[in-house]
Amino acid sequence: MYPHRTVYSARSKKTHGTVYVAASVGIKLAYSLFRGVGAGLIAFVVLAFLFTIGPIVKEETKYASRSSEDKAKVEYLTKLAEANNISKVQEEAAGLGLDSYFSIYIPKIDAKSKVIANVDPGNEVAYVASLKEGVAHAQGTYFPGQGKGVYLFAHSTDTTFNVTRYNAIFYLLRELEVGDDIVVFFTDKKYVYAVSDKQIVEANDTSWLTRQYSEETLVLQTCWPPGTSWKRLILVARPKTDS
């Protein structure tokens, strides 16, 4: 497409000079036409591509944006629901005179108390001090919601006159039967259990304490008969399916 002629010859006497080379009008027109057609083809291909892929890109962009917005909405609503639920649990516990951090409520006998966590059941000085304040959670056992064994123990006593003196939260524990509810508040969540078993065991029987539970199990222990340390009353409860 470019013009070609002899520009310099060694037979020429001139050692230097200026040479002007110009294409003919026809070649210029052909070259311009070729460039125009090429640019047009490129533009056509680009437009065709955009026309074909554009709607897809548009929909993908809309979907990604919508998904991001939906995710943000779900996260917001989830947090809002959790906050509302926490508030309800806190209000319910407060209405019973309890703290939703860790406490127990047994509706049938109207027993309610805070729970002191991680009390060593083998250290008499430690657990006696804790039992003056409320119900003790046995050190080494799990907490509500962890899917394992939760072990709580407290005083009983011989007469109603001594209930206050000994802080006998579990004084009427013997009145509970299979199916009765036990409510535990823990870290602003409410756990409802139903009694599934009740047993009287020897004082040195620690099997309920040391047992490895494969499912969430709440065990309550107190002295039996009330006011003595001869034996132990054990109540076993498991999560209610409708709680």
Automatic annotation (TrEMBL):
Molecular function per GO: hydrolase activity
Signal peptide: none
Keyword terms of this UniProt record: Hydrolase, Membrane, Transmembrane, Transmembrane helix
Residues passing through the membrane, by range: 37-57
InterPro entries for the chain: Sortase, Sortase_dom-sf, Sortase_E
Gene3D superfamilies attached to this UniProt entry: Sortase
Pfam family, one: Sortase
NCBIfam families xref list: sortase_fam (TIGR01076)
Protein's recorded name: Sortase family protein
Taxonomic lineage of the native organism: Bacteria, Candidatus Woeseibacteriota
